[in-house]
Write a structure and sequence with these properties.
With 257 residues, the chain is an alpha/beta fold. Helix content is 46%, strand content 13%. The protein has two domains: 213 residues, Glycoside hydrolase/deacetylase (TIM Barrel, Alpha-Beta Barrel); 38 residues. Bound molecules: zinc ion (ZN). The site of zinc ion has 4 residues, from loops.
């Protein structure tokens, strides 16, 4: 099963065996170039318990990763975040201020600044920020939470934040981006392909994104989550097909997520 802690441990073991150096996002942007490199990022959305289970697997292997915390959900707990920082994890800001400010750029920028200030005031050394993406949100006047950065090119530098998007591409021109979006692997076709690629040293650098909410200590939950994710994808596709039939539009597939 793909998204269990045991599977994650196998993935890390393979990477270490193949000579990958595991880097936090900040290290990847500022440290000396390493090859092969495995840059690990976790987007912490809702559930701290699942996040702790995933990073416990890393700690057992002496690995530290980057954790991007939402500040508008119950995972926001500065004391807990400080403890994780003390344990060696990078704590970053997972922002969605444009979504929450309904596309009002000025208000979203102010909210971003205030939230970053709060994190730093709590003792967190935040030097990277990653936009949150929720495919269910209807966006008017902007395409993603990241637009706040492209609209104002000096924004990151003013707030003393590193440019993750541009920086990774500059430091690792051939990196592959592999993510567990929608509880299925993106960037590779399967977990088996990912493991084989790591074992063969297929990629000089891997930028791995996981959402610990999707991962399970128990095999049964992992199976249930994957079946539910497949069913939801099927439901969306069926709804789209129904919509097209009703409107008499041309039938197309894709774009379900
Ligand atoms: Zn997110």
């Amino acid at each position: 099963m793909d998204f269990t802690c045991a599977a994650y441990d196998r993935l890390l073991a393979s990477a270490l065996d193949a000579g990958y150096r595991v880097l936090r996002v900040r290290d990847a942007l500022t440290g000396p170039p390493a090859s092969p490199a495995l840059i690990i990022r976790h987007d912490v959305e809702w559930n701290i318990r699942r996040t702790l289970a995933v990073i416990n697997v890393e700690q057992q292997r002496g690995i530290r990763s980057s954790l991007y915390f939402r500040v508008d959900t119950r995972v926001y707990d500065p004391a807990q975040m400080c403890r994780l920082q003390d344990a060696g994890f990078e704590i970053g800001y997972h922002f969605n201020t444009l979504d929450r400010c309904r596309g009002d750029f000025a208000r979203a920028a102010r909210t971003f600044e205030n939230e970053l200030f709060r994190l730093r005031e709590a003792g967190l050394d935040v030097t990277t920020a990653i936009p949150h993406g929720d495919p269910r949100i209807r966006r008017i006047g902007y395409r993603s939470n990241a637009d706040i950065l492209s609209r104002d090119p000096g924004f990151l530098a003013r707030l003393k934040l590193l440019d993750v998007g541009g920086g990774l591409a500059a430091h690792f021109p051939e990196f592959v981006y592999i993510a567990d979006l929608g509880i299925s692997w993106n960037g590779v076709r399967s977990a088996a392909e990912l493991l084989a690629g790591i074992q063969l040293g297929r990629w000089p650098a891997i930028y791995l994104l996981t959402h610990p909410d999707y991962w399970s200590a128990s095999w049964f939950r992992a199976v249930g989550m994957q079946i539910a994710a497949c069913a939801m994808r099927g439901l969306n596709i069926n709804r789209i097909i129904a919509g097209f039939r009703r409107s008499g539009a041309e039938f197309r597939t894709g774009g379900a997520e």
